[in-house]
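Researcher: I'm comparing several assemblies side by side, and this is the next one on my list. It has 231 residues spread over two chains. Same procedure as the others: predict the full complex and return the structure.
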Amino acid sequence: GENVEQHPSTLSVQEGDSAVIKCTYSDSASNYFPWYKQELGKRPQLIIDIRSNVGEKKDQRIAVTLNKTAKHFSLHITETQPEDSAVYFCAASMLAVSGTDKLIFGTGTRLQVFP
Amino acid sequence: GAVVSQHPSWVICKSGTSVKIECRSLDFQATTMFWYRQFPKQSLMLMATSNEGSKATYEQGVEKDKFLINHASLTLSTLTVTSAHPEDSSFYICSATRAGGPHEQYFGPGTRLTVT
């Protein structure tokens, strides 16, 4: 089945710097790649997603890139702020046997932004 | 739109008892709901996929007789943890996909289960 690896597990940056989180996936059939931000004890929040027919997508300070050949996708956060501190998860979606898409999550990256 | 609720938000139960967690889509019809378990400082692990009116599909290693899932309507799925043990203590999160909509899953706020 699908396997999603995520690096780094922790990332500390100074406010204003950029942060990059990388993920790789194993199943070339995956075609949807969302990124979630999760604060302690809260639900995951979708921050950006990309589909396999697109190489890059940007939304203000957040961007995601996808390399289907290498099966890599990355999250880029520019001009980081202390409120960006959270755990970030990448995920890949594959069509399950039941015909229903299911998400396979990466292991998470704890981002700390220091003022 | 696309709000998902869970009840209860937290529960403490004694070992050997059963606990039921509800997941509701409040403003949309959800043909599919997913149940995840998240241990402290770990990722979300998919437990099962639930389609309205049919049996849930469980992930490998998840005991279907222990984690009973019912998806009786387009807005409600329930997860019952039977004969709970301390190792079942975890954060349980559901999500739902909108009928006719692709991919995006809307997450509930989670239920923290503590088994004593």
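Model: For your comparison table: The longest strand of chain A covers residues 86-95.
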